[in-house]
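To illustrate the input format used throughout this study, we show a single complete record. The first block contains the structure-token representation of the backbone; no residue identities are included at this stage. The design step must infer an amino acid for every position from geometry alone.
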């Protein structure tokens, strides 16, 4: 009879056939997201039940739990969305989040416990160190390196050992002697995946006791740039401009309306692509920015924007989507940027105000 663990991980030997690992990741992420949404829901219920006399610290604790759970769910879903795709999607992340999220997905993919040493335990804490990260490709590389060890139910340990380094240690459990080191081809595949995101595997060696160690080095990311509302020009506080939103999901639409309204925008909103085109043409020159969801009923966001561009309306637009595929279509359109769901409302406000501040920004009116 075949070893169940061999059957479980058989597909990971072939870099073109990771269906089983992906299935494990999907099931595990679904479980984790259910837990996180439960934490959010219970915290919301707790906030509603708190008496008016509740201390600010008690309320803040619930808000902190909600924010932390939402960020974790966003990270998981973003990784899942890109896990099977071909497009490289690099984002800045703290080394702490990189190792935590990678270990969680690796655990799901290989169906084995992963020991993690968090950056806070490393001398000279690396919590504020940012790295360039495509989480899906990092996890794919780790699958290549750790799959043989997982088959033998070996010990797998990840640790942050520097500002941008993650060490990988594989070893037999309970004094076992199984060879857990990845094959040369596995190391080669991992290196190829890491090269796609500017990372490397400079150190990889067996320790002579059927163990193996690797040192994975990620690229440093520049510090985040804060976008403050401008004090003069088109984006001055006394005039934030007008926005037209096309979003069919009522909760997302309400959040976008609220976000822009709170920073001074006058906002209109529609729920499908055809209505967006009609309103955009009828009010040409009246709006300063468009926010357009890609997955709209009727014409999708890209086709709707194409229609407006053909009509000569060059209003700056931000296409938003929970899918990966629309990015090239958005980038092919004039005066159009792309933002992946899930996003933060601060990101939306920063984009909108930066468009108002842009000198010589398109007015949205067609040429006469």
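Output of the design step:
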């Amino acid at each position: 009879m075949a070893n169940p663990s061999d059957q479980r991980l058989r597909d990971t030997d072939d870099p073109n056939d990771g269906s089983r690992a992906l299935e494990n990741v999907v099931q595990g992420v679904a479980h984790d997201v259910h837990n996180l949404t439960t934490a959010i829901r219970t915290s919301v219920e707790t906030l509603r039940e708190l008496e008016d006399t509740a201390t600010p610290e008690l309320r803040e604790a619930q808000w902190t739990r909600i924010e932390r759970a939402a960020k974790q769910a966003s990270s998981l879903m973003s990784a899942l969305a890109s896990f099977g795709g071909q497009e490289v999607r690099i984002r800045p992340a703290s080394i702490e989040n990189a190792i935590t999220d990678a270990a969680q997905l690796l655990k799901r993919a290989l169906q084995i416990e992963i020991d993690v040493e968090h950056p806070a335990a490393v001398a000279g804490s690396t919590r504020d160190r940012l790295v360039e990260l495509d989480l899906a490709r990092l996890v794919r590389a780790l699958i290549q390196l750790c799959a043989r060890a997982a088959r033998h139910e070996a010990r797998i340990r990840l640790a942050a050992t520097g500002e941008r380094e993650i060490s990988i240690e594989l070893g037999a459990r309970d004094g076992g002697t199984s060879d857990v080191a990845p094959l040369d081809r596995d190391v080669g595949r991992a290196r190829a995946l890491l090269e796609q995101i500017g990372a490397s595997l400079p150190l990889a060696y067996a320790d002579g006791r059927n163990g193996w160690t690797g040192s994975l080095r990620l690229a440093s990311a520049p510090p985040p740039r804060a976008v403050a509302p401008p004090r003069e020009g088109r984006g001055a506080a006394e005039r934030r401009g007008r926005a037209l939103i096309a979003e069919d999901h009522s909760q997302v639409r309400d959040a976008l309306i609220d976000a822009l309204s709170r920073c001074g925008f006058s906002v209109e909103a529609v729920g499908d692509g055809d209505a967006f085109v009609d309103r955009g043409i009828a009010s040409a020159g009246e709006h300063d920015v468009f926010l357009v969801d890609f997955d709209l009923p009727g014409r999708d966001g890209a086709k709707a924007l194409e229609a407006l561009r053909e009509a000569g309306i060059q209003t700056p637009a931000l296409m938003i989507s929970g899918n990966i595929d629309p990015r090239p279509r958005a980038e092919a359109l004039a005066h159009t940027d792309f933002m992946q769901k899930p996003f933060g409302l601060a990101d939306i406000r920063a984009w909108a105000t930066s468009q108002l501040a842009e000198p010589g920004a398109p007015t949205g009116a067609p040429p006469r």
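Structural context for interpreting the output: The chain has two domains: 4-217, 242-357. The first strand starts at residue 91 and ends at 94.
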